[in-house]
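Proteins fold reproducibly. Look at a sample protein:
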Amino acid sequence: MAHGVLRGRGCSGGIATGEALVSSPINFFASYMPGILRGELSVLEDRRHELCGKSLKGKVLVFPFSIGSLAGGVSLLEAILRGVGPKAIIATRIDGVLLSAPVFARVFFGIEVPVVDQLTPDPLKTIRTGDLLKVDGDRGIVERISVDGHRNSPSIEPLRVP
């Protein structure tokens, strides 16, 4: 198995490289709707979430799943269209609501946001915020290029796939 590779299911195609941002479940409606309504969408605004005040722009979002209803998918789509959404999404479990945003972005606007889920090993146990990742949504593969800002080298332990 290749050094630092996780394999799973590709849900939305494309390839993106970016810094990982590991999170608990996110309610995209609660996080983005206040900014959408004010016309100042840039950061997550759900005060109950640990990423409140942070931007997903250019990040590879690594999280278990989304919380909420269809409005969450619409809110995430708006963030993607305005250029402040994640560059790629890695989740334990993708649902139709979450997946609707990257799929609509690709089909209707030509914006690719790769989405991968059901990875082995578990990305929430092996990926840390700051790791540089390459996400291939067509093949369902995530490659860890560097660990918390340090290029993979013999001194950095690679991901182990059973």
Q: What stands out?
A: The chain has four helices and eight strands.
